[in-house]
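Consider a concrete sample entry:
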Amino acid sequence: MFTGIVEELGEVVAVADLGDASRFTLRGPVVTQDAKHGDSIAVNGVCLTVVETADGAFTADVMAETLHRSSLGALRTGSRVNLERPMALGGRLGGHLVQGHVDGTGTIVERTPAEHWEIVKVSLPKELSRYVVEKGSITVDGISLTVVEAADDYFTVSLIPTTLSLTTLGIKQPGDPVNLEVDVLAKYVERLLGDRTGDVAK
């Protein structure tokens, strides 16, 4: 389980095509300082399993399903990525509960700078819109954010200077894809209410 508080802005240093999968090598000296084979690290919000670590970098295998359902398939050597280790038991929940299981992808639609922050508009798949509410939580590329405006096909978030400087949302431009994970609590509530009414959400 993650919290959506990005620990480090890492970099893709190599991508190897394995046919039905890809092996990524990513530089992240902070998240690899205590990482070992089999550990989990969230990469742009996608929970990946560490294969090996060396010299401040780690490798992870990404199957075709994940490449197709997330924005990881668009990563290339030199791409910057958000990195986070799982929350330790008893640690502070600085963001919200994040599983690292991407529900869909969106696209940066526009960026509107203000004096001390920036409003970013992101397209939203219609099947996810029911889980997104104003002032609720959403994970964008692994970043826990508060929704400012929620519509059927988009939402907006307000980014403070720290988020802009320490995550990929400071450099992504209109047209760039982002991974989205909605609040898992909303999905559980929907399922429970569906069970009560006999109309289980699919």
